Amino acid sequence: MQDTLSKEQAFEDKIARGQVIEPKDWMPERYRKQLIRMMSQHAHSEVVGMLPEGNWITRAPSLERKLVLLAKVQDEAGHGLYIYSATETLGADRKELIDQLLAGKAKYSSIFNYPTTNWADIGAIGWLVDGAAIVNQTALAKCSYGPYSRAMLRICKEENFHNKQGYQIMARMMRGTKQQQEMAQDAMNRWWWPALMMFGPSDKNSPNSEDLMRWKVKLYSNDDLRQRFIDRTVPQAEAIGLTIPDKELKWNDKTRHYEHGEINWEEFNAVISGNGPCNKQRMNQRIKAHEDGKWVRQAAEAYAAKHYN
Amino acid sequence: MQNNNDTQWMLWEVFTQEKPGAPFEHAGSLRAPDKELALLNARDVYSRRNEAINIWVVPADAITASTPDDEGPFFDPSNDKAYRHPNFYKTPAGIKQI
Ligand SMILES: [Fe+2]
Ligand SMILES: [Fe+2]
Fold first, then answer.
1. Rounded distance between C-alpha atoms, residue A79 and residue A150, angstroms
2. Where are the beta strands (DSSP E) in chain A?
3. Does residue A176 have a pLDDT over 60?
4. Per residue in A273-293, is it b (16+ CB within 10 Å) or e — as a string?
5. How far is A237 from A234, CA to CA, in rounded Å?
6. Measured in angstroms, how far is the CA atom of residue A139 from the centroid of ligand 1?
7. H or E, element range at A83
8. Which element (helix H / strand E) includes B15?
9. Cα separation of A183 and A62, whole Å?
10. Å from B77 to nearest chain A CA?
11. How far is CA B18 from the centre of its chain?
12. Confidence check: pLDDT of B10 > 70
């Protein structure tokens, strides 16, 4: 039997060699805990993320838009499932994770606590929110934990559809009437900053834990990923005539990156700690959906017990 | 319903075949109360974009797996059997193809 110290060394060496960690491999407790925390928050975000968009399925402006939105929301349910399953490979129990979410003890992405007030918001979400998710998830696809990385690869393929359908909604509105253009710009104004907040606190206030970087649980800093998102999104906005609601935004020819204004961290902290515009509504909807589905879960299980055992 | 025993259903592992003749590969897992629903859920979750032409679902607890701790001893028997590989054998000079 190896002692913990040499096991830990073997684990570190494995990761340094670029090898992937699989569920049954030995891993430090902190690695396991950190992954369970990150992955369950990610799974919760996929599930809660269905609510703001689900809100518009019945009011989509055409049958085609309705089909597309349904397909997208269904994908998000799948994403939740992939990531809950991957979390379970670490010994977490799905029921416990869901109970924590419903009890208000678990976090999910703060972006989903903003309201979807009109159809342009659906365009802005697909384009900006899923766009930010792609940047995050493409990085996570390279993480050291096999099941998480594989789930991310699968998800990234689907996110491209989410991103493009959102951008297409915005592009269409920008070619529409003056009123439609104003709606698109208004959605842009409301979603831009919350989308930037999706990458988490600035590096100044969230010193990256050396362990997590070395263990490849985290691969890039929050600010690096945010920068990547800004750099790829600004030209997309300009191409369809949308203005980024940031007066300080400018291209820096030396660094080859955009510089941006200060993010409102007070707002970020308020939303994270439960005081965003829709935190309560989202949680109540989630709890109701879970409770309403209970009899279905139980009936299906009773049927299975009768017919298969 | 009065029953307070909520359930998340049992865990299944899903294997998919991408095209005829291809091997089945592990696609992921899901929850379902029985095999029929497991198959339907597997189709909805792992083949929404023609990723599979065939699916196997297996109750997760029916799978027996090797453990990483046996990695050495368990797979050892194949280490000292170089004669199982074609490059163990030297071909006489002048022979182009065998
Ligand atoms: Fe997603
Ligand atoms: Fe998405």
1. 12
2. 250-252, 257-259
3. yes
4. eeebebbeebbebbeeebeee
5. 5
6. 14
7. helix A63-88
8. strand B10-17
9. 18
10. 21
11. 13
12. yes
**Nearest Cα to Cα of residue A145 among A255, A219, A66, A45:** A219
Query: What's at A57, amino acid-wise?
Result: I
Whether A2 shows a pLDDT value over 60: the answer reads: no
Which CATH number applies to B10-64?
Answer: 3.10.20.520
User: Tens digit of pLDDT for each residue in A216-228?
Assistant: 999 999 999 999 9
pLDDT of residue B95: 84
Helix axes A222-239, A178-197, angle to 10 degrees: 170
Confidence of residue B81 (pLDDT cuts 50, 70, 90): confident
Q: Which residues sit with Cβ closer than 5 angstroms to ligand 1, an ion?
A: A 46, 76, 79
| SS3 per residue for B27-70 | EEEEEECCHHHHHHHHHHHHCCCCCCCEEEEEEHHHCCCCCHHH
- What pTM was computed for the model? 0.91
> What pLDDT was estimated at residue A130?
97
Confidence at residue B4, expressed as pLDDT on a 0 to 100 scale:
55
Q: Give mean pLDDT, residues A80-90.
A: 95
Contacting residues of A for B6, CB less than 8 Å apart: 95, 294, 297-298
- Radius of gyration for the alpha carbons in chain A, expressed in angstroms and rounded: 21
**What interhelical angle do A130-140 and A146-174 show, nearest 10?**
160
Q: What count of residues does chain A have?
A: 309
In this structure, is the dihedral angle defined by the CA atoms of residues A62, A67, A69 and A70, taken in order, positive or negative?
positive
- Kindly report the nearest CA distance between residue B27 and chain A, in angstroms: 9
Nearest CA-CA partner of A100 in A51, A29, A33, A40: A40
A and B: number of Cβ contacts within 8 A: 60
Which chain B residues are within 8 Å of A20, Cβ to Cβ?
A: none
CA-to-CA distance for A208 and A204, rounded, in angstroms? 9
Average pLDDT over residues A47-51: 96
CA distances from A303 to A296, B17, B35 (A): 10, 29, 12
Q: Which amino acid is it at A176?
A: G
